[in-house]
Amino acid sequence: MKLTALCPTFLSVLPTQRCAAKYNTPEYNPRARPTLTPECCVLPYPCDALHINAYLGIYSARMTDFDNWKIMNLATFLATLNSGEKILAGSEAHMYMHKLSQDAFKVTARINNQYNTPEEMTALLCELTGQKVSPTVTVFPPVFTDCGKNLHFAENIFINSGCKFQDQGGIDIGSGTLVGHNVVFASLNHEQDPQARGNLLPGKITVGENVWIGANATILAGVTIGDGAIIAAGAVVTKDVQSNTIAGGVPAKYIKDVEAD
Q1: Catalytic positions, please?
Q2: Residue 179 phi/psi, 5° resolution?
Q3: Phi/psi at 49 (nearest 5 deg)?
Q4: How high is the mean pLDDT of the chain?
Q5: Residue 164 falls in which region: left (phi positive, over 0), alpha (psi -120 to 50) or beta
Q6: pLDDT tens-digit profile of 64-106?
């Protein structure tokens, strides 16, 4: 069983059960820091390694003083994610990801829980993404993201309500694109190995110009959708879609070419 080491600062907020000292070594836990003592290893309750790592990692992020973060900054984080480099669970980039999530939740709470004029909505999208967003971008709430800082809108875009943007790996939405209700953009994968499944594999999602994505579709990491393409409602897009084609199904496959008048 792989366990995660925590600084004593976090012990007060977690149920503690001591575990054998040998399990807090790099041999058993690649994420353990040799400078920490065995007393810093906490086993909240019997469960598999993935859940233990997730449990401890989440509490580590919540207890970190993000306002005084010195190790990672936004530019470094985005460069790392945009390179496609694997993000190790518990790494500096992973912990910074938690910081960005908290920042995004504050903004989406304001978007989703009060009325905002179109002008106020544009300002909130600018705050959410950290970039200038064109007033020609319309997003109907609720909208959800656990990052926001790697989400890029062109112009004359319409996003219907309930869409979810997991944009750590990068999401680019081209001009003139229409996105239906409850579409999911997921730019992160996990490793298949159960003992390393907490690691993250970013993959940029690129949506071309004048694309139409039907309601409840899911666009997965690394996918590029060409200009003028149509994604059928409910499709799960795992591979690139060529320009001016229609794709649908699970997984999405080519159906036919777009018919232009």
Answers
A1: 190
A2: -125, 125
A3: -60, -40
A4: 81
A5: beta
A6: 444 444 568 999 999 999 999 999 998 999 999 999 999 999 9
Amino acid at 125: L
The amino acid occupying position 154 is A
Mutual angle of helices 49-63 and 92-112, in 10-degree steps: 70
Buried b (16+ CB within 10 A) or exposed e, 201-225: bbbbbbbbbbbbbbbbbbbbbbbbb
Is the separation of the CB atoms in 76 and 82 below 8 Å?
no
pLDDT 10s digits, 186-203:
999 999 999 999 999 999
- Mean pLDDT of the region 178-186: 98
**182, 198, 165: which is closest to 234 by C-alpha?**
182
Structure tokens at 240: 């690139």
